[in-house]
Amino acid sequence: MPREIVTVQLGQCGNQMGSVYWQRLCAEHGINKEGILEEWATEGGDRKDVFFYQADDEHYIPRAILVDLEPRVINGILTSSYANLYNPENIFVSKDGGGAGNNWAQGYSAGERIYEEVMEMVDREAEGSDSLEGFMLMHSIAGGTGSGLGSFLLERLNDKFPKKLIQTYSVFPNAQDSEVVVQPYNAMLTLKRLTDHADSVVVLDNGALTRISADRLHVQTPSFDQTNQLASTVIAASTQTLRYPGYMNNDLVGIIASLIPTPRCHFLMTSYTPFTSDQIDKAKPIRRTTVLDVMRRLLQPKNCLVSTSPSKTACYISILNIIQGDVDPTDVHQSLLRIRERQLANFIPWGPASIQVALTRRSPYVQTNHRVSGLMLANHTSVASLFKRMIDQFDRLRRRNAFVEQYKKEKIFENGLEEFDDARATAEELLKEYKACESADYITYVRPLPLPHPPDVPVANASTPFPPIPPHAPRTHTHRALASPTPRRDRTPGARYTMRAAARRKVYLDVRSARRDGVYL
């Protein structure tokens, strides 16, 4: 039975990235621009129905919802050669077409106005699935629509589909070259929602995309099309085991469970090799692609799509390598032994030093110039340096209350700027938890409860370490998860008021220790 995934594309970045992504998926599954399966695409073995469904006329249609508050990008998609690929009922453009003005608060407020129309599309796709597994969200956290509207939809999807997984592909801004002066505000407010409401966040750093473009493509100032090609290559590779299933990691929950042992540390870094000319124009050629070469390159910082600051204490929490091509499992085992002998990967002291490897077929419909390619999904503590950079940029603006007047005009800020302070506190807690992961006593680490507490929720103390769950908690901006009639799983953000972090962590560690798939060092 298929485990369908619905893709939601938000804003300029999300829709541009999604457009290239769907073009790539069509090529890998032998589907033409009209959504018709090519006559020569007869090899089978792939699962198209995870990301596509068939219309009455046998056309393949992406399980995608395109949303933007201004029409330029979506109009470009609708006038492209792939215009007939999408379901027109799943495309939403705001009637006023004014966008969100690169303002998180405007995007969030717009979400309240368009909620019914967008959720009708989501419900239609969910009800049309036999066994919906979850949602993929593509967006940027720097602008207005992707950050503000993305935050709003994350909260609502979390409430409406409490048992479905939510994975985001979030483009983080370039720290050195910012086109939006208020991007530190937008990014910080969005980071809070990504922390509280997403199951997994795949971080795509604009700075790293620019660096890789300069190194691999010889382009010092890459265009949006070139960076979108890089991003779509990585996104498509991360879904390869879902579309060409093997013996393991053939659903989203398997991937997430193997990478995320604790609820909040769910920000994943990616590396990919090789970027070649059959994927991206002007790519630097790579002559040799053995399993060992690919796995060694995946561990090199220059191939990582997140720019982080080096640290002697930084370490891997978990690694999943998705290797594509005709590979002998014996070569994989030998490569893992070589990596261990050379100590190329430093792991957390409180968990297993394991590299999980998933072998998957390459699409028979796309010709490549290399024998083996690989994607690494890694949970690494160095991502904390990205959060530290975001906090520093935020503080420089917040200290002077710069550019806050436009935010005060929206409803969410009408009673003050506490939302800014809550978001910064969440980022600070996340930074501390990733740093705590580097120490051996992390198992006993208990994340402090945020203050002030909602008045109706008891606070843990020495005599009552496990406060009871309020039967009908009112909806507040700090306590949304408990407002849902169906409680979230153990990783629920709202459960921070009702369960000690260490107790919740044990659930994830038990799941991780019980994994039956993968190769361990």
UniProtKB/TrEMBL annotation:
Subcellular location: Cytoplasm, Cytoskeleton, Microtubule organizing center, Spindle pole body
Keywords linked to the UniProt accession: Cytoplasm, Cytoskeleton, GTP-binding, Microtubule, Nucleotide-binding
SMART domains xrefs: Tubulin, Tubulin_C
Residue segments, region Disordered: 473-493
Domain Tubulin/FtsZ 2-layer sandwich residues, every copy: 248-392
A cellular component term, taken from the record's GO annotations: spindle pole body
Top-level taxon of origin: Eukaryota
Domain Tubulin/FtsZ GTPase residues, every copy: 48-246
GO biological process, one term: microtubule nucleation
Gene Ontology MF terms in the entry: GTP binding
Main location: cytoplasm
Pfam families: Tubulin, Tubulin_C
Homology family: Belongs to the tubulin family.
Protein task: Tubulin is the major constituent of microtubules, protein filaments consisting of alpha- and beta-tubulin heterodimers. Gamma-tubulin is a key component of the gamma-tubulin ring complex (gTuRC) which mediates microtubule nucleation. The gTuRC regulates the minus-end nucleation of alpha-beta tubulin heterodimers that grow into microtubule protafilaments, a critical step in centrosome duplication and spindle formation.
Entry protein name: Tubulin gamma chain
Native source species: Trametes pubescens (White-rot fungus)
Lineage: Eukaryota, Fungi, Dikarya, Basidiomycota, Agaricomycotina
